[in-house]
Amino acid sequence: MYVSASKGDRRRYENELIAPFERATPKDCYGEFTSPGVSHALLWKTIHEARSAFHNGKEIDPSMVRPHVLRSWTRSREGNAPLSGLPSVHLSGAEMQRILERNEFLLSTAEPIMEELLNNIHPTNNCIILTDTNGVYIHTLGDGIGFGRGATSPMRGLISGEAIEGTTAMGICRVEHKAVCVLGCEHYNSYFDGWSCSAAPIFDHHNKLAGTLSMTMERDSFNHHAFGLVIAAAKAVTEQMQLKHLLQETRAIMDILEEAVVVLDDSGCIRMMNKCAKRLFHLDEDMCGKPLSSVADPMDVRQFPEYGTPAKDNECTLRLADGTTLQCLYSSSPVPEGGLCLTLRESSRVNQLTNRMTRAKAIYNFSDILGESQSTRQTIKLARMASENSMTTLILGESGVGKELFAQAIHNSSARRRQPFIVINCGAIPRDLVQSELFGYESGAFTGAARQGAPGKFELADGGTLFLDEIGDMPLATQASLLRVLQEGEVTRVGGKRSRRVDVRVVAATHHNLAENVESGTFRHDLYYRLNVLVINVPPLRRREGDIHQLAEFFLKKMARSLGKQLTGFSPQALRCLEHYDWPGNIRELENTVERAAVLADGPLITEDMLPEFPSQGRLLLPKQETPAIKHNVESDAGSDKTAMDKQRLFDALYTTRGNVQAAAKKIGVSRVTLYAQIRRHGLSLDSFRQC
């Protein structure tokens, strides 16, 4: 039962009510005034006479009237409340509807408690009233004639207040925010002398007054137990409102979470689930009270721990009620009072978050690809066509031509642009780990495997694009598995038996001649034909006539911003050197060359003496018909610090060793002391090389 009062509470209420009566010493009897009992007749007459004197503006003995009643009389007189007669201020239907909507939370909470309160009071001519903070009757219950119930009650919509009807329990309660009772002629208006009323405040979650709950009954029927029940009922409404508000906050927090939350009772039935859980399980209705197995059932019971066992980020596959399957990660925690709290996250969603945190996305567009040569424009045109579909695409080209740049641009111009872009270099992964990297692995698949297993790059790229760089270096065993994925759209993790469907667009790239690899038996012919559908050949830099100047200027501006230098361009001789070189390392080599020249530059222009020599390739970075103008005369150190070296040679040594003095000195063949002297002489900074 919601409403109850302890013996201590009732004793306190009785002391508040009876003690003042017993201290009164009236001299006369009530006469014809109706009293609630013969034993208190003298008291009632004393209060009646005190009220009459107060109405006439006379001084009264404060000991004859309870303090809260006297304070209310004073406020009622100041508000020009009527001394007699039935006051009635009633709201219109439209105004009342707005108030009901504004107080819906209070009303929905109080209604069942008011019903229980009425059922626990001995049948009598009484009425229970709920008011808002302005004293508007928003709900009434009563078993007396004329009281009515709820929306049918003629009392609903009345406005109470000390200025309207004088002293009443609900009026005092609204002003003083405490539980009170007003008996018989304690009312300021004599119209209510035949009634007794009690009221208690209701507070919201901010501990502010939300309304009042009051009970009115015939004066002679009043008892302190009923007063205690009113106080207990008001407290129950307050606590229920606070709990409901807390529950609403909890639900709001649960609904904003990007993971499903399901609370089960100790029998495995659903007690509560958030919106994400309903969406994840494809549900439109509330499934509270139904077993979890009727909504989702694990396809492999071994994936779920024993009921009540804590778990953290375990992977499982669920069969849903509509026949579909759900791959997810779940965690579980026992509820202390019995039951289990489950959180579930869809595996694809987890993969998306992982990709976002690891920046698994494409950043380049076709607008970032520089060059106006015919070969460049033709390659971009073909790549744009590739972006309009999801066909497997093969990009061919020498190292350093920008194959990944084209792959990113294709992805960012496709319908998958908002999905992940995953890159894996097939030649940079140990052969025995390529399978697990691409397709993932199950728990215990091999020594050192994670306990829960792990998704592979195909699962992480689900919905997006997987860029397989250097596919020509992929082991034959992995090529067979890749072919199956391309044909079936399913992956099977290493050590697993169950296939998982994936929607991945594959873009592969290689600098190898795959046709020759097929002939030599190092590349599967069926995979080659599967890849060789839409082929994009990225031309080497030496065949991109006119693009070198544009690219060099772009890299120079980029380095000027990074170094904080004012670099305006290249001298005619330096530009001629760049355009006549055949660039075996392609764009990557050009960028590195410009970076080195920018670091060495001590003026606004890059001149030819700032361009490096490539002795390892047996050629100079100069027009082929010219005689090399830059020579390096490096004498053997032989313990002497007098070895001469030019700035270019020093720079190359420091650049290739990333500022490692010992390694650079060894590379040139001088002592560290000599190297430090030359660094100071040429005004170079080791920090600039160590940050390269």
What's the story with the biggest beta sheet? Answer: 6 strands, antiparallel
| Bulk shape | elongated
How much beta, percentage-wise? 15-25%
Please provide the count of β strands. 22
Low-confidence stretches: 1-38, 614-643
Kindly summarize this structure in a few lines:
This protein has 24 helices and 22 strands. The longest helix is centred in the middle third of the chain and has 33 residues, at 224-256.
Walk me through the structure:
The chain has 692 residues and is an alpha+beta fold. The strands form 6 sheets. A 6-stranded antiparallel beta sheet has the order 7-6-11-10-9-8. It has a 5-stranded antiparallel beta sheet with strand order 2-1-5-4-3, sandwiched between helices. A 5-stranded parallel beta sheet has the order 13-14-17-12-18. Helix 1 (7-23) packs across helix 8, helix 5 (104-119) packs antiparallel against helix 8 and helix 22 crosses helix 23 (672-681).
Give descriptors for this structure.
elongated; alpha+beta; 39% helix; disordered N terminus; six-stranded antiparallel sheet; 692 residues; five-stranded antiparallel sheet
